[in-house]
Write a structure and sequence with these properties.
The protein is of the alpha/beta class and 354 residues long. The protein has 14 helices and nine strands. Strands 1, 2, 3, 4, 5, 6, 7, 8 and 9 form a nine-stranded mixed sheet that branches. Strand 1, helix 2 and strand 2 form a beta-alpha-beta unit. Helix 5 crosses helix 6 and helix 6 runs parallel beside helix 14. The longest helix has 19 residues. It is globular and about 60 Å long. The N terminus is likely disordered.
Length: 354
């Protein structure tokens, strides 16, 4: 009996020792997590530092749109731990029971997130997400090829200007593309009136002969290499492109645009939930948040990191737009099922028509 007790004690000690090695699994193999994020949206060096600090390896892959990410997850084609969707997709995934409730005792750096970014409509009880970045949709254009008179009023109409036929790039995802048409027509981007959607589809059909391509991450090469003159994209990426090509400029359309909030979440069923929460906490460390912001140039909800940014960045109105610009913007909500089905049908029809 004594031998059995001693053996049991030794086993318990061994298990405790193994569990204390944060970067190793129960059989001693290196622990890893799968992080699924937008392209061009993280500083690679912080992933390396996370592994060095915790011993946890990050398998990092990217997607180009919320819809691509969602389709991959619900198809079961791959397994992920941390994902970084936008607000309306977070709301959708909560309603479908796809996200895990976070253990905030593992995310003490959540205290640095500004109160104005907490408890928003997509996660009102602050259970499923930690804000990562925010920003607006902008129109990017090349000043060498786009006449100043055509951008002087900073209108969304530039995307429908026949003068630039064949040199306009549009979003290759339905929510963002239809949002621009809704704005042009004076609709809410969150309208659930079918007639509004049919009207927006007609606007996109009128625009299609002018569009060179419907793209997402490919916009970087096309705009930087001057293969196109006008494009729609997200403010942080626009800044990155402008930094690499001094002839590029951008603006938030005077009629309004989407203002988005991307947040870090853990998928329900993750086999590495605690490690995933460690990753989220690491990304909220002030020094890490500053470095990451300096790399991606998106607005950040982290109060201490914002104060530590270079004034050139924290004062850039394209990154941190003034209130009068934000007042014209709209945040996406999760549309009802009927509207989502209609959006999908209209988008397929647009993309497949000649």
């Amino acid at each position: 009996m004594k031998k059995k007790i001693i053996s049991l004690i030794l086993c318990l000690v061994l298990l405790a020792a193994l569990s204390s090695c944060g970067g190793n699994g129960p059989s001693g193999e290196k622990q890893s997590i799968n992080v699924y994020n937008w392209g061009e949206y993280i500083d690679q060096s912080v992933l390396d530092d996370f592994e060095a600090e915790t011993g946890i390896h990050v398998n990092y892959t990217t997607y180009a749109s919320n819809e691509e990410m969602y389709s991959k997850i619900v198809s079961g084609a791959a397994s992920y731990d941390v994902i970084i969707p936008s607000e309306y997709m977070i709301s959708k995934m909560i309603s479908e029971d796809l996200l895990a409730e976070l253990d905030f005792s593992n995310i003490p750096n959540y205290k640095y997130i500004g109160e104005e970014y907490k408890g928003l409509s997509y996660d009102p009880d602050e259970k499923y997400s930690v804000p990562y970045t925010w920003g607006t949709v902008v129109i990017v254009y090349n000043t060498k090829y786009v006449d100043e008179e055509d951008v002087a009023d900073e209108s969304i109409d530039l995307l429908w200007n026949e003068k630039y036929a064949g040199n306009i790039l549009m979003f290759d995802n339905p929510r963002d593309a239809f949002a621009l048409a809704h704005v042009k027509l004076g609709h809410s981007m969150n309208t659930m009136n079918p007639e509004d959607w049919y009207e927006a589809a007609e606007e996109l059909k009128k625009q299609k002969p002018l569009v060179q391509a419907y793209v997402m991450d490919q916009i970087f090469d096309k705009m930087l290499n001057e293969e196109a003159y006008i494009a729609t994209y997200y403010a942080g990426d626009a800044i990155t492109m402008m930094d690499e090509n001094e002839d590029l400029a951008a603006y938030v359309p005077k009629e309004g645009a989407n203002m988005f909030f991307d947040s870090m979440c853990v998928l329900k069923g993750s086999q590495n939930k605690e490690a995933a929460e460690k990753f989220i906490n690491f990304m909220c460390e002030t020094e890490i948040a500053v470095r990451n912001a300096e790399e991606v140039w998106y607005a950040i909800p982290h109060t201490a990191a914002f104060e530590a940014l270079d004034p050139e960045q924290s004062g850039d109105p394209l990154v941190y737009p003034p209130q009068e610009v934000k007042d014209k913007c709209e945040v996406f909500i999760n549309l009802n099922e009927e509207t989502l089905i209609l959006q999908s049908e209209l988008w397929i029809n647009l993309k497949t028509q000649y």
